[in-house]
Amino acid sequence: MKIARTIPEVRAWLAPQRDRSLGLVPTMGALHEGHAALLGAAREGCDTVVLSLFVNPAQFGERTDLARYPADEARDLEIARAAGVDVVFAPTPEEMYPPGFQTWVDVTELSAILEGAARPGHFRGVATVVLKLLTIVRPTRVYFGQKDAQQVEVVRRLISDLALEVELVVLPTVRDEDGLALSSRNALLSPEERAQALALASALALRDREAALSHLRGGGIDVDYVEVADFHPRVLAGAIRIGSTRLIDNIVLEEEA
User: Fold this and answer.
1) In terms of Cα–Cα distance, which of 189, 152, 185, 155 is closest to 30?
2) Active-site pick, 35, 122, 215, 232
3) pLDDT digits (tens, 9 = 90+) for 47-62
4) Which of 33, 49, 90, 211 to pair with 204, CA 20 to 30 A apart?
5) HEC string of the chain?
6) Per residue in 53-107, pLDDT tens?
7) 214-239 per-position pLDDT tens digit
8) CA pair distance 137, 86, nearest whole angstrom
């Protein structure tokens, strides 16, 4: 497995692979079984698999939130090797945003609702780094999880609006046995907070906005939002705060149509 730290390095390694299918799994590290599922799908569907490990500072509104984001590159690399990754692209912030950087991508309407309203500028950072990764790697397919439904929709619109030659592959949300959606932020929860966090999945499972809100507020949960979003597919999405940790989840409603 090749580990590339710079853009010229990863491009040079991938140059001989251009005549074969190439899959990209963009991540911010702190890999879990949800990421492993994406890597497995990329390994099955592509000749060459690239994993990006980059905690993107541009999508964090608060420095404290960025500082708290879990990071364990050695563990991530072990998971990548076990998944059969061919190359890991792990750049520094300075490599992705060199001095003088001033070009940003803004998917305007989708970035203004739900997570975008709660975290202004978040999706500008997401769209910019995803476009840059797609430009650097030039994959045949790019893999994301349904757990971040709005992020998927932003990337889908980015690909469509800019006529990018890449296939978006979206995998279902991976959950623990108790129903909690896997997230890198789950590692920040105490055992008591994790038990509280289960309320989000159980509320969304009611498949009704008002019922979900009532369930969460009745349990004393700090709710940011619960909304039906007309994404592709349509979802019931929610965000809550447990202690100092913010969690998101969604459930697909499309089968009700």
Assistant:
1) 185
2) 35
3) 999 999 999 999 998 7
4) 33
5) CEEECCHHHHHHHHHHHCCCCEEEEEECCCCCHHHHHHHHHHHHHCCEEEEEECCCHHHCCCHHHHHHCCCCHHHHHHHHHHCCCCEEECCCHHHHCCCCCCCCCCCCCHHHCCHHHHCCCHHHHHHHHHHHHHHHHCCCEEEEECCCHHHHHHHHHHHHHCCCCCEEEEECCCECCCCCECCHHHHHCCHHHHHHHHHHHHHHCCCCHHHHHHHHHHCCCEEEEEEEECCCCCEEEEEEEECCEEEEEEEECHHHC
6) 999 999 998 777 898 999 999 999 999 999 999 999 999 999 999 999 999 999 9
7) 999 999 999 999 999 999 999 999 99
8) 13
Q: Which residue has the tokens 């099955």?
A: 44
